[in-house]
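<derive_structure_tokens>
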Amino acid sequence: MNEWTLPYTFEFQDRPVSWGVAGEGEPLVLVHGTPWSSFNFRHLIDELSRGYRVYFFDLLGYGQSDKSDADVSLGIQNQLLGALIEHWQLVSPYIVGHDFGGATVLRNHILDKRHYNKLVLIDPVALSPWGSPFFKHIEQHEAAFAGVPDYIHAAIVEAYIKTAAHQVLPAETIEGILAPWLGEQGKPAFYRQIAQADSTFTDEFQARFDEVCSPLLILWGEQDQWIPCEQAYQLQSKIAGAKLVTVPDTGHLVIEEAPERLATEIRAFLQG
């Protein structure tokens, strides 16, 4: 597998954030979720940069960004997103958020009043309550998990990420997802971001979906076992005018399983 690298660094509250940009055209920002990174957008970046200037980055605590023992919750990620958009000098860009990235986009749009030309949410964490039994267990035993031997940790993470996909993930994809979570910094960072996950961060906008003021496309893997597809219809019903497209034979990791289909739907929506 060719190493995934982000060439640029942005300092946010004295913490380095890695980012990249590709293509030319109207600005489009991609926001990843957990336990993913910008690596998982590589196929979408390749597709969408053929018509847009695509900005992508790793959230605090993820990928190649800062993994210090600090705040990596949803409560800080929307602040980071806003700061990056200011740094890039973007005005009302298009934006795409997957999983926690969807929650980050909604927090930035609703709570921080950031206007976007159009919004795309892919299997987003958007409706409370959420959090699997695995999340709850990590929250209670973070230190114990962070201290497991490296080979056991790698096995835990690999088994966990495989449940996000409906299709079998290629070995190089698994390797790319695992890479940021290994080593002296990566291992505790994996359990830290799970332990800090809390549905209070989505509770804050649960009653404010009527404040979504940009056109919205919701994309959802029909076989999502992490956030069932039923939530797609619930979310659509709460946001006036929202368009929903479900993608067959894909799970929560639809960005890896059907990037060409997603790119087609996103292009049609942005150009429509």
